[in-house]
């Protein structure tokens, strides 16, 4: 019988065009690698527990327990139940936005020349809000289930006055990030512009994505040991899996 995954590591790969949306179920023990293909990409992302979708990504807990504002290698992404959806095991950028939010329908119309599907077909202009709503509806979720999202490949800094600033051209072609999933996770994502992107025209930046097999988590794992809180998070996952969670 032929091998389904001949190289034993790469399980699947594809690309997602700019201004598009997708969702997938990532299994525990796999890695989702995201790659900026042209530079300037943004990936809005949310996580849910597929067995109990009331459990979802919690940005405040993720940031405060790891004493961080940005996200990068070594950080874990937490649910509102104190469990870890995934860990950032590799990152070429050292900074991903955790607080910038999502491009709303109102902001889309304010900033860009909006094109409908009837006018432009697959080149129509979508908001992150619309994209999340479409993908979440596939799983019985609605706008009330939205949480604060990540913006991978984007960088937002804060000055001494507390004002936030978007850094253009932060991500270059070939930059990538690896998310190792510590529990089965429903991943909702889009490639719409960051809401603070000052580009005068709608930026349509594609990404590549790969699903890979993960190495087993060792006792000296960098993500698990980067903070004492992360050790407790991995312990919470262990209890969850012992009780039958996947």
Note down, in words, how this protein is organized.
There is one protein chain. The chain has helices spanning 59-65, 105-111, 117-120, 128-137, 222-225, 228-242; strands spanning 10-16, 21-26, 30-36, 43-48, 76-78, 84-91, 150-152, 156-158, 164-166, 176-181, 185-190, 207-213. The protein has 6 helices and 12 strands. By secondary structure, it is α+β, with helices and mostly antiparallel strands. It has one domain (10-242). The mean pLDDT is 95. 19% of the residues lie in helices and 26% in strands. A hairpin with a 5-residue loop joins β8 (156-158) and β9 (164-166). The strands form 3 sheets. It has a 6-stranded antiparallel sheet.
- Spatial sequence of strands, sheet with the most strands: 1-12-3-10-6-5
Largest sheet: 6 strands, antiparallel
Average residue pLDDT: 95
SSE series:
EEEEHEEHHHEEEEEEHH
How many strands in all? 12
- Rg, please? 18 Å
Helical coverage, percent range: 10-25%
What number of domains? 1
SS strand fraction: 25-35%
Structural class: alpha+beta
């Amino acid at each position: 019988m032929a091998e389904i995954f001949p190289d034993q590591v790469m399980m699947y790969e594809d690309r997602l065009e700019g201004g598009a949306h997708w969702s997938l179920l990532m299994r525990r023990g796999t890695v989702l690698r995201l790659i900026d293909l042209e530079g300037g990409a943004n990936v809005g992302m949310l996580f849910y527990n597929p067995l109990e979708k009331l459990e979802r990504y919690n940005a405040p807990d993720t940031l405060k327990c790891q004493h961080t504002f940005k996200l990068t290698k070594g950080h874990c992404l937490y649910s509102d139940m104190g469990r870890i959806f995934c860990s950032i095991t590799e990152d070429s950028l050292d900074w991903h936005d955790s607080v910038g939010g999502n491009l709303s329908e109102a902001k889309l119309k304010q900033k860009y020349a909006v094109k409908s599907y009837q006018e432009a077909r697959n080149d129509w202009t979508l908001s992150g809000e619309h994209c999340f709503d479409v993908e979440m509806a596939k799983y019985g979720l609605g706008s009330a289930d939205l949480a604060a999202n990540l913006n991978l490949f984007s960088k937002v800094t804060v000055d001494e006055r507390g004002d936030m600033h978007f850094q253009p051209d932060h991500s270059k072609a070939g930059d990538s990030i690896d998310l190792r999933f510590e529990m089965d996770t429903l991943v909702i994502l889009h490639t719409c512009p960051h809401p603070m992107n000052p580009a005068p025209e709608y930026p349509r930046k594609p990404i590549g994505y790969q699903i890979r097999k993960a190495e087993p988590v060792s006792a000296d794992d960098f993500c698990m040991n980067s903070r004492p809180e992360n050790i407790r998070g991995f312990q919470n996952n262990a209890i969850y899996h012992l009780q039958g969670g996947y």
